[in-house]
UniProtKB/TrEMBL annotation:
It catalyses: 2 D-glyceraldehyde 3-phosphate = 4-(hydroxymethyl)-2-furancarboxaldehyde phosphate + phosphate + 2 H2O. GO terms for molecular function: lyase activity. Its EC number is 4.2.3.153. The keyword Lyase applies. It holds the Pfam family 4HFCP_synth. Transmembrane segments: none annotated. It comes from the Bacteria. It is an enzyme of class 4 (lyase). It comes from Symmachiella dynata. Signal peptide: none annotated. The active site is at residues 29, 86. This is (5-formylfuran-3-yl)methyl phosphate synthase.
Amino acid sequence: MPPQLLVSVRNGIEAEAALQGGCDILDIKEPARGSLGMADMAAISAVAEVVGQQPDDVALSAALGETTDWYAAAPPALPAGINYAKLGTAGLRPDLDWQQRWSEVRRQFDLAADRDIAWIAVAYIDWELANSPPPLEIVAAATEAGCAGVLFDTFAKTGRGLFDWLSETQLRGLVNDIHAAGQLVAVAGQITAENVPALIDFAPDIIAIRSAACAGGQRTNAIEAEAIRHFKTAMHNAAISH
Ligand SMILES: O=C[C@H](O)COP(=O)(O)O
């Protein structure tokens, strides 16, 4: 199966543009709030409504900030249309009990939504900058916790992308471990259309972008349908020649 394209959007207007561009999965995120910045609930509901009006099946995911953001706050009830949810792992590294705290925050979200949310564990590949547990530890924890998948992403959005942090050998090993556990693999980290041929080789289930979908490749600019079409064409061409 060729990978699916996930595009992170900040509101309903961007969701429309991403759908026009041909994304397979919409992800709701506020990029100005960081790598896994959570959008306001009004924006989350607006995007869920746009997706609900689509004739075709478009999956929906939501970024929910960092796990530590929820130690002293009550999680809101996520709309029913959200298929996947992601919590960042920045700042968890020094905490020996991080897995329990991460599970507890996820449990609170499940309780608020009154259902079992499909969780995507977030492995920051620049984990030292994020002060998060290293990717190998996250991959093991995701399996133990029964997560639906693992996302590799960068915490710092400063232009260094996926392959600036992970060697191809490291990525291959991690992807194989996750697939062996029956989970999805999503890759992100300022991925460009030029990275696609190399990425296809690892058979990720999802390629996740924000920067490459925005005007001028700047992640806080608006989503452009044409930029997504360009990216989809790169995925299509890479899949054919693979
Ligand atoms: O979930 C995916 C991220 O939003 C990717 O963002 P980025 O392409 O700016 O690294």
